[in-house]
Design brief:
The chain is α/β, with parallel strands linked by helices and 290 residues long. It contains eleven helices and twelve strands. It has helices at 11-22, 40-50, 64-67, 71-92, 125-140, 160-171, 187-198, 216-226, 257-261, 270-281, 283-289; strands spanning 2-6, 26-30, 54-57, 95-101, 144-149, 152-153, 173-177, 181-182, 185-186, 204-207, 214-215, 233-237. It has a six-stranded parallel beta sheet with strand order 2-1-3-4-5-10, sandwiched between helices. It has a two-stranded parallel ribbon with strand order 6-9. The protein has a two-stranded parallel sheet with strand order 7-12. Helix 1 (11-22) crosses helix 7 and helix 4 (71-92) packs parallel to helix 5 (125-140). The longest helix has 22 residues, at 71-92. It is globular.
Amino acid sequence: MKFLVTGVKGQLGYDVVKELEKRGHTAIGVDREEMDITDRKKVCDVIKSSSVDGVFHCAAYTAVDRAEDDVEVCRAVNVDGTEHIARVCQELGIKLLYLSTDYIFNGEGTNFWNPDGEEIEPLNVYGQTKYEGEEVIRKLLDRYFIVRISWVFGLNGNNFIKTMLRLGEERGAVQVVDDQVGSPTYTKDLARLLVDMMESEKYGVYHATNEGICSWYEFAREIFQQAGMDTVSVTPVDSSSFKAKAKRPFNSRMSKDKLDEMGFERLPSWQDALFRYLKELGYSDRRKEQ
């Protein structure tokens, strides 16, 4: 089969293309230069000329704090851009897989958010626009997958793990919030599941992260332990210690029972994913040397 992947320069788009090619599919990866998703005509021309069986829509405006001031641009990408893609998929009768986020929930309590629940209450502009993108897809299409993810890390781009490793090496000490809880998601593992979905007809809304729950503080401690950087001091602090323009959810626990119900294989534990990721970055070898 043949698929188009938006946001190919990002962490997830990069791994989705690799997973598609690994399985023998044809992958056409595009980014802003090849297909500016805010340009309706360009989107129409590129998708139609590509003759694909489906679109993995991984591109998004993800600068969460900047979005609070950059509302129009954020909405143009996350809502209008998504609508442009969805309308072409509707016209051609092809599948669309859209990546959404835990930020569509209010982040309160300790419950696990249900993918088909109605407790939608975005905390910030980014979360609001991603949910509006979901609504556009539900309105226009029948053959779609909406997959909500959280705490993403991959090789192709910046992420929390790379930031922690850099700060640990530069400063030898970090402060990390311990009142925000969720699940890390390794793009290489996620890409496998997303391709499984697109190879199926099991449409709907899903949650997909690596297994297990932790706080950002616990995540950071595990990063330094696995990377052989035990001397780095990690101090837990609450969210009020960091002045951020956009509010973050305290509770990003997301139920993945629907994956089981629909016959999809869950992702490995986040600790296992972290180990494999650090090995790709070269940190496992460093640990063995110590």
